[in-house]
Write a structure and sequence with these properties.
heterotrimer, A alpha+beta (about 350), B mainly alpha (about 280), C mainly alpha (about 260), B: about 280 residues, mainly alpha, MetI-like fold, 2 strands, C: about 260 residues, 11 helices, globular
């Protein structure tokens, strides 16, 4: 039994299913991201964990104790809300103290723990302020400290960084990750931002339409997406329409390639743009390499890389080249190559 | 939240109150409409339509209805003509006193109706502001009658419904996008043409709703026709009060009250349907 | 296009003149030295304030009105705020219908409510009594409190109560420590307006008042019907000043509430 066990969780709203049969095991001290587009049910799952929403079906167990029907205030879960939900009528210290006060802890002990909590998020000395006098990043830290001081059994973070600007988000990411690691606190992190999920968590559960599409490490998810949705949602990918020849080999842009095709049905070949390389049209290639030829439509400088759009017999594809390399000129005839193992076939979705 | 399952229990005191002191008396009112008045003037318990048929056969009821409708119509028209520019002003102004100006505009709503009626008596009376002014200018020789007649009641009603109409208009203007007016101006329309072709058509639903509200409020107003009419202006509201208190003729008062309510509901439905139709 | 433009501003100024005219005239008239309504007054004095201070019926009506308004305000909040809490925070079937039910009394004119209450109270001998007047005014103030507080409670910052729950506060503690403190400015504003609504309520009071007990607006109507002298103007000044204090208080409170809510 893992520390946190979700089994067959389901939640319906009227006719629509928000969360459908979600099961997930999280080890003690592990950090898991629920990654998915908006409306995929990730926040609903988190809220069911916190007891803010009652599931229609399924069970939640923490440390081998079932808490599915336990009221929110008895669960001891640290929840950091997207809006932070700081109490505007209380000072920063009182905000952090709130959970401790509700637990009937002595005044001196509360003061000590609040000070510790504020120090942990590097807000020492700001305890007397009101939340509205703080910047977004500082409010975020207060919310985190408030959730941490109660020594929660699980820390739940709901899109907690989405209201911060890009720079600050990066800093907070590392800060939260290091706090989580040093306290060894079991964490569930809801996000729609894959960079956040990839950098902050031990494992990622990609959610789509109320279901978990894949659970795995960042590398699993990125390198070996289990479904077409995961391949599309995590990272960028060229979806190249392909067919198969009589020998079962993949035919792409009019040529056969050394890639195994799925046994039946229409399918696309997914290839990450940064796994592709552009070589001169005349350069020959080896056995385990896919090679298509086409003409450069245009090159766009995007800062950390150059995106080259190539048009060939079977449509268009994008190649990411590291910036600093010389991009081919527009109209040039080129070959695009990648390793056969970097091509992932996924069946086309039934229209 | 788990604890919220017992939350509906909090509705109980208010529910009991509304049922006992609002719903039940209203049902009593309905019941009384079917009672009869005996020859001595005493009420006789009955289930008949006698009181209703007699009341409607009375030409006075028709006259009261026409009076009420006519007074409400002119009061609403005047109030609308005044409220519309004021609301548009409040909607558009970027004065830093906007909040204060809005409060002043709806201030009469919060000040006792009797106080305001008294103010109109002082303005419109024989020796009031208007007559004194006109006489000192030599425009009239004898005071003109402005109160204790239809003129006074119309003016008083118009003033009393204005705050409500201003609020309704402002709420309706909320959907009016300033950039549309700017687009019209940039396309070469003059301010007047812009008002005529963009602002007015877009605010028409708000106008209809505000007018409907003003009309209904004037129809059911009692204090203003009573005090500014000086006993010479008869409307449904004054008659209901007279029948209920002075004459203690409850069945007739009940019949008239239900009849008035029916008229009001009809007016509200019509103005709401009209506004909805205009929005499309 | 910026602002309202000179034409519209001019029109608005005219309308403001119409709106403020009765109030200004009443205030001026209160300081009249004349024995009847003459505007502008031929001289100024404080005689009508002195007359008011000696006018027993109006003063006792004023006292009754204050008593009624206080009781009405307290009871309306006691009955209305819990209901608003349930309507704003609860999730149960038929909530919309119930909301409609509680707000329905605001739709009917007080003329109809007043008549219905007269028919209801007379056999129970509740007319012209303090309890009768209180119950009568509450038909206006209870729905008003429910409407205002439901809106105020629904507009509390998102997730703030959920946050308190996850931190271990029981539902009752959430209301006490978070919901109510945050709703306090709205609550005080609501109390002020309920007081004003009850204090100014005229039509329902006219139906159920009597010689034994009549509120200030009723006495004022009777006075204006019978006599035309500036005494009522002096009384009006007192009322206007009191009203303005309440209005300013409400305006500032709601402003404060907005600042906190952000």
């Amino acid at each position: 039994m893992s520390y946190l066990e979700l089994a067959g969780l389901q939640k319906r709203y009227g006719g629509s299913v928000a969360v459908d049969d979600v099961s997930l095991s999280v080890e003690k001290g592990e950090s898991v991201a629920l990654l998915g587009p908006s409306g995929c049910g990730k926040t609903t799952t988190l809220r069911m964990l916190a007891g803010l929403i009652q599931p229609d079906r399924g069970t939640i167990r923490v440390d081998d104790v079932e808490i599915t029907r336990l009221a929110a205030h008895k669960r001891n879960m640290g929840y950091v809300f997207q809006s932070y939900a700081l109490f505007p009528h209380l000072t920063v210290s009182r905000n952090v103290a709130f959970g401790l006060e509700e637990r009937g802890i002595g005044k001196a002990e509360i003061a000590r723990q609040v000070e510790e909590g504020l120090a942990l998020v590097r807000l020492d000395g700001l305890g007397g302020r009101r939340p509205r006098e703080l910047s977004g990043g500082q409010q975020q830290r207060v919310a985190l400290a408030r959730a941490l001081v109660i020594h929660p059994s699980v820390l739940l973070l709901d899109e907690s960084l989405s209201n911060l600007d890009a720079k600050l988000r990066d800093t907070m990411r590392h800060e939260i990750r290091s706090i989580q690691r040093s306290l060894g606190i079991t964490t569930l992190f809801v996000t729609h931002d894959q960079v956040e999920a990839l950098t902050m968590c031990d494992r990622i559960a990609v959610m789509n339409r109320g279901r978990i599409a894949q659970i795995g490490t960042a590398e699993d998810i990125y390198e070996r997406p289990a479904t077409r949705f995961v391949a599309e949602f995590v990272g960028r990918a060229n979806a190249l329409p392909a067919t198969r020849d009589t020998e079962g080999k993949v035919v792409l842009w009019g040529a056969a390639h050394p890639v195994a095709a799925p046994p039946q049905g229409a399918f696309d070949l997914f290839v990450r743009p940064q796994r592709m390389r552009i070589v001169s049209a005349s350069e020959p290639t080896g056995g385990e390499t896919v090679r298509v030829t086409g003409r450069v439509l245009r090159s766009v400088f995007v800062g950390d890389h150059v995106e080259v759009l190539v048009e060939g017999a079977g449509g268009q594809l994008a190649v990411e080249m590291p910036s600093g390399t010389t991009a081919p000129t527009e109209g040039a005839e080129v070959a695009v190559i990648w390793q056969a193992k970097d091509s992932l076939p996924f069946a086309c979705e039934a229209a | 939240m788990t604890g919220s399952r017992r939350l509906p229990l909090l509705l109980l005191p208010a529910g009991i109150f509304v049922l006992a002191v609002y719903v039940w008396p209203t049902l009593l009112l309905l019941r009384n409409a079917f009672n009869e008045v005996g020859p001595t003037g005493a009420m006789v318990e009955a289930w008949s339509l006698k009181t209703a048929t007699e009341t409607f056969a009375d030409g006075f009821t028709i006259e009261l209805t026409l009076n009420s409708l006519q007074l409400s119509l002119s009061a609403t028209a005047i109030a609308l003509a005044l409220s519309y520019p004021l609301s548009l002003f409040l909607f558009r102004t970027d004065s830093r006193f906007r909040g204060l100006l809005a409060v002043i505009a709806i201030l009469p709503m919060l000040i006792s109706g009797v106080v305001r009626v008294f103010g109109w008596l002082a303005i419109l009376g024989d020796r009031g502001l208007v007559n004194t002014l006109l006489q000192s200018l030599g425009l009239i020789s004898a005071p003109i009658k402005l109160v204790f007649n239809w003129t006074g009641v119309t003016i008083g009603l118009a003033e009393s419904i204005m705050p409500y109409m201003i609020l309704a208009l402002l709420a309706g203007f909320g959907q009016l996008d300033r950039t549309l007016e700017e687009a019209s101006r940039s396309l070469g329309a003059s301010p007047l043409r812009t008002f005529w072709r963009v602002t007015l058509p877009l605010s028409l639903p708000a106008i209809v709703l505000a007018a409907g509200l003003g009309f209904v409020l004037s129809m059911s107003a009692y204090i203003t026709p009573k005090l500014l009419g000086g006993g010479r202006v008869f409307v449904l509201a004054t008659e209901i009060f007279e029948q209920a208190t002075t004459n203690t003729n409850w069945p007739v008062a009940a019949v008239l009250a239900i009849y008035t309510l029916g008229l009001l509901l009809l007016l509200l439905v019509v103005s709401n349907l009209l506004a909805r139709g205009l929005k499309r | 296009m910026n602002g309202a433009g000179p034409v519209l501003s001019g029109l608005a100024a005219l309308v403001y003149a119409v709106i403020l005219a009765p109030i200004i005239v009443v205030v001026t008239l209160a300081f009249s030295a004349d024995s009847f309504i003459l505007f502008p007054p031929s001289g100024y004095s404080l005689r009508w304030f002195q007359a008011l201070a000696a006018h027993a019926p109006l003063l006792s009506a004023l006292w009754l009105s204050v008593q009624v308004a206080c009781v009405v305000t307290l009871l309306s909040l006691a009955v209305g705020v819990p209901a608003a809490l349930a309507l704003a925070k609860g999730e149960f079937r038929g909530k919309d219908a119930l909301t409609g039910f509680f707000l329905a009394p605001l739709l009917l004119p007080t003329l109809i409510t007043g008549l219905a209450l007269l028919l209801f109270f007379t056999p129970m001998r509740l007319t012209a009594t303090l309890p009768g007047l209180v119950l009568g005014h509450m038909t206006v103030t209870v729905p008003f409190v429910i409407r205002m507080m439901t809106t105020a409670l629904s507009n509390l910052p998102h997730d703030i109560e959920a946050a308190a729950a996850t931190l271990g506060a029981t539902p009752f503690r959430v209301v006490r420590r978070v919901t109510l403190p945050l709703a306090t400015p709205g609550l005080i504003a609501c109390a002020c307006l309920s007081f004003l609504l009850s204090f100014d309520e005229t039509v329902i009071s006219l139906f159920i008042s009597g010689p034994r007990a009549s509120t200030l607006p009723v006495e004022m109507v009777r006075y204006v019907e019978g006599r035309t002298d500036p005494l009522i103007a002096a009384l009006s000044v007192v009322l206007i000043v009191a009203t303005l204090i309440v209005v300013v208080a409400v305006e500032r409170l709601v402003g404060v509430a907005r600042a906190i809510g952000k």
